[in-house]
Amino acid sequence: MIDAFNIYDKMERHNILLSFKGDITSELLTSILQIMENKMDNMMEEPKTKKKVYNVLVECLQNLYHHMDDATDENGDKNRSAIFMIARNKGSYNIITGNYILNENIHGLKSRLDDVNSLNKDQLKDYYKAVLNNGEMSLKGGGGLGMIDIARKTGEKLDYNFLEIDNKVSFFTLIIKVTQPQLIQ
What we know:
- By secondary structure, this protein is of the alpha+beta class.
- The protein contains six helices and seven strands; from the N terminus they run H-E-H-H-E-E-E-E-H-H-H-E-E.
């Protein structure tokens, strides 16, 4: 039997505002964005914070939607399901995403994430322009700007992890911290 209170209690202790597990669709993205916009309105969040959280959330959800691998594990089971959560802690929001990824794609993604994490604010701006002007597209149609844009908007490093499930598939977790601007005294 599932202990609903235990799940509720964990979500409450970790300040989870919204959590979802399942297949990511365009209709779901629209609904999630509307729900979060309403939640932040109800919390009387500052417009600057709302905009930043919303923009980063859009990037994170688009990354899930467009770049999730059709990963089949050793048992032949398809793993198209993903998870995302949004938590509000004192002074910040955390946007957490997780999805399956083919092990063969980890090296390239890890390399791009490490590249982004190694750059300062000015270097990120230059890198963004260079990728934008390069015009190259990935195999899934993206230009690789999403993670750069997230790092630029948050001013934070991209926190990520790969958990190997089997010799074909791993689970990729990305945690993005969006710090709320300090109120002017």
